[in-house]
């Protein structure tokens, strides 16, 4: 038995191991490259979106408002647009003490700091209104029967999820209490929400 | 004396050459073919080819590096449509010569259509995951639209006409359909129409002319169009898919019929529900379309037919574009 075991070890076993390691390494390298390329593309699209929003805001004069069509994009993750007024306490560090809008994979200041991109907005307050989310609860209606009841929230999300196709943003700029307020509202046709 | 398991010189040399070879290929791919650093149509074209030739299992991981080109047809001022946006390309029209200005508008639009068609593979490449509804693309929470399927789009370009131009020239005189029928593609001996129909159609048949000539005033209210490349997969046969796609592209479109063998190359749909086309410039616009079994990464056809359309749509009609495109890939 011992003799057979020793015969089982081929003399180029080291080469096979090294070869396998190289192949796995190469595969991982290609996978990482693809992942990076994909994320870079999405990040570029998200950044372009937020720069365009800033451009539109800057183009509006105080008291003006308009609907702007925007081109969404499909990706492996969702991207959120979130706004932070200069008085917001929990805010991205990269916005310093200014009002800003941010695009990131999660609607949080941390995600904005670590994985997102931001634009400083020259306004005292930023209001973002996303969709009116549906809240669903499951109700027991019989011994083994359940019903799901969904109701639409009365308040919209304070973030906007960038859709995979076109969408409208209603952007307004007005002066409230001597302070410029910018509002960005998601304005998708009813049947597509 | 040689020990068991010891590497021979030839093995060491072979191993070194293999590792070196991999390293060279990797460096070449990462440095010289770095599509991230390339710009414009070249980067887009390369990413289209990379995706189309990638193994179907990893196809979805290959990003399309196509950025929407923004063309501003103007006498010199910026287009309001692109206000606050980056990288716009002005095409300056002669102010004193309306006829030349109209021809430039027709040429710019026809070229934008043609570039989109060419860069995206003329409908012959499977770019958005043929036969992989249960695969990676099933994750896309897109709406179903055309024949209950999911269509994928890339917005190749946006063509806008500056307000001053609209006030001065007679928009009614812009006839891109006629331009594409009469004019040769730059550097080619074929007209745009012949190119879009794989040389099968030289002139519009009467039925198509009638269809293109119908008036849809509601479609005129725009000063900007999006040149859209759309691909959808279907288990319907190519002709049925073509007719149905035609209904969504404004009713008349040129169809390259290689895939369906010998059928006449223009399909006219009577449907008028969703109108597309270059609404500003002409009520009804020819859309280039190609319906055929799609090829996979090794050139063999898959079970599904794909319909590919390049057309222009009112950029401001979000609802209509979303009915046409479930999902969009590419950089806005």
Explain this structure to me?
The complex is a heterodimer of chains A (193) and B (332). Chain A has helices spanning 2-8, 13-59, 109-115, and strands spanning 65-71, 80-84, 99-104, 117-121, 125-129, 134-140, 146-152, 159-161, 166-176, 179-186. By secondary structure, chain A is an alpha+beta fold. The longest helix of chain A has 47 residues, at 13-59. Chain B has 332 residues and is an alpha/beta fold. Chain B is 31% helix and 20% strand. Chain B is built from nine helices and nine strands. In chain B, strands 1, 2, 3, 4, 5, 6, 7, 8 and 9 form a nine-stranded mixed sheet that branches. In chain B, β7 and β8 (301-314) form a beta hairpin. Chains A and B meet through α2, β1 and β9 of A and α1, β3, α9 and β9 of B.
Compact description:
The complex is a heterodimer of chains A (193) and B (332). Chain A is of the alpha+beta class and 193 residues long.
- Strand runs of chain B, count: 9
Q: Order of strands side by side in the largest beta sheet of chain A?
A: 1-9-10-5
* Radius of gyration of chain A using CA atoms only: 26 Å
Task: Return the average pLDDT of chain B rounded to an integer.
Answer: 69
Largest interface: A-B, 47 and 47 residues
Structural class call of chain A reads: alpha+beta
What overall form of chain B do the CA principal axes indicate?
elongated
Uncertain stretches of 5 or more adjacent residues of chain B = 130-147, 215-219, 247-285
> Helicity of chain A, in percent?
25-40%
How do the helices and strands line up, and which of them pair or pack?
The complex is a heterodimer of chains A (193) and B (332).
Chain A: H1 2-8, H2 13-59, E1 65-71, E2 80-84, E3 99-104, H3 109-115, E4 117-121, E5 125-129, E6 134-140, E7 146-152, E8 159-161, E9 166-176, E10 179-186
Parallel strand pairs in A: 5-10
Antiparallel strand pairs in A: 1-9, 2-3, 2-8, 3-4, 6-7, 9-10
Chain B: H1 9-32, H2 40-53, E1 69-74, E2 88-92, H3 98-119, E3 151-161, H4 163-168, H5 176-182, H6 192-196, H7 206-213, E4 224-234, H8 238-248, E5 252-256, E6 266-268, E7 287-295, E8 301-314, H9 318-324, E9 327-328
Parallel strand pairs in B: 1-2, 1-3, 3-9, 5-7
Antiparallel strand pairs in B: 3-4, 4-8, 5-6, 7-8
């Amino acid at each position: 038995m011992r003799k057979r075991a020793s015969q089982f070890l081929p003399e180029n076993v080291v080469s096979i191991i090294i070869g396998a390691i190289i192949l796995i390494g190469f595969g991982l390298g290609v996978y990482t490259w693809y992942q990076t390329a994909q994320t870079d593309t999405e990040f570029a699209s998200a950044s372009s979106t937020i720069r365009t929003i800033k451009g539109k805001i800057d183009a509006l004069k105080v008291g003006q408002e308009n609907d702007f069509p925007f081109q969404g994009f499909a990706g492996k993750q969702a991207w959120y647009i979130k706004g932070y007024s200069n008085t917001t306490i929990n805010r991205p560090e990269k916005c310093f003490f200014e009002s800003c809008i941010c695009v990131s994979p999660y609607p949080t200041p941390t995600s904005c700091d670590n994985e997102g991109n931001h634009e400083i907005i020259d306004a005292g307050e930023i209001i973002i209104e996303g969709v009116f989310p549906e809240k669903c609860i499951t109700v027991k209606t019989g011994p083994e029967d359940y019903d799901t009841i969904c109701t639409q929230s009365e308040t919209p999300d304070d973030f906007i999820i960038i859709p995979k196709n076109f969408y409208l943003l209603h952007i307004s700029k007005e002066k409230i209490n001597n302070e410029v307020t910018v509002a960005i509202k998601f304005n998708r046709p009813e049947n597509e929400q | 004396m040689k020990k068991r398991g010891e590497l021979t010189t030839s093995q060491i040399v072979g191993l070194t050459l293999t590792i070196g070879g991999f390293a060279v290929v990797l460096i070449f791919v990462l440095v010289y073919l770095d599509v991230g650093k390339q710009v414009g149509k070249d980067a887009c074209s390369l990413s289209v080819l990379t995706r189309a030739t990638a193994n179907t299992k990893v196809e979805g991981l290959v990003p399309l590096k196509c950025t929407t080109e923004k063309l501003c047809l103007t006498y010199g001022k910026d287009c309001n449509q692109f206000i606050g946006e980056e990288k716009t390309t002005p095409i300056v029209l002669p102010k004193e010569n309306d006829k030349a200005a109209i021809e430039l508008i027709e040429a710019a639009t026809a070229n934008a259509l043609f570039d989109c068609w060419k860069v995206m593979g003329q409908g012959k490449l499977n770019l958005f995951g043929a036969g992989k509804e249960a695969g990676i693309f099933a994750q896309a929470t897109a709406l179903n639209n055309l024949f209950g399927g999911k269509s994928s789009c890339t917005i190749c370009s946006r063509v806008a006409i500056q307000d001053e131009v609209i006030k001065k020239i007679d928009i009614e005189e812009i006839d891109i359909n006629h331009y594409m029928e009469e004019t040769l593609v730059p550097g080619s001996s074929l007209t745009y129409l012949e190119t879009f129909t794989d040389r099968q159609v030289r002139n519009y048949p009467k039925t198509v002319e009638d269809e293109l000539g119908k008036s849809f005033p509601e479609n005129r209210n725009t000063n900007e169009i999006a040149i859209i490349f759309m691909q959808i997969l279907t288990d319907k046969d190519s002709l049925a898919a073509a007719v149905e796609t035609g209904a969504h592209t404004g009713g008349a479109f040129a169809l390259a019929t290689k895939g369906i063998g010998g059928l006449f190359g223009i399909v006219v749909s009577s449907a008028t529900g969703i109108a597309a086309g270059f609404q500003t410039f002409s009520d009804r616009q020819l859309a280039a379309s190609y319906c055929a079994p799609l090829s996979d990464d090794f050139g063999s056809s898959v079970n599904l037919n794909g319909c590919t359309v390049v057309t222009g749509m009112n950029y401001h009609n979000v609802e209509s574009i979303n009915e046409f495109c479930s999902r969009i890939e590419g950089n806005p």
